[in-house]
Write a structure and sequence with these properties.
The protein is mainly α. Helices cover about 85% and strands about 0% of the residues.
Amino acid sequence: MKPNLFIITLAAVVLTACSSYSPAAEFSGIADELEQNSQTYTADDWAGIISQYESIIESMQGCEYSDEELQEIGRQQGRCLAYITKGYAILAAKKGAGYLNQLKGLVEGFEQELGDGEEIVNSVEGLLEGILGGND
């Protein structure tokens, strides 16, 4: 009986932790901070932001979120990643030609994988139509 009590207690702790934790709010806080202050960030500041971002991702493991929560989490993640990418570009420009070449490669990699974004939008729309169309 005691192992079952342990499992029930552990499950209750996990459920409570997941239900009270808001990754969207955490990502939003980072994005708001970056919006206000990222222009003056050093490489160490960016390393700290990336560490915070990764920590939020890790804390989401094992939690379940509604579709609306996932959409907002994704939106806030996108905001963070936009600022992180922009910050990397600024640091690269400050560091010189070697970093600028690396930045060019980064942009080329994005374009190679994502194109102008139209293909991704079309893919997502197709997936949504398939999922939503199956619920009629």
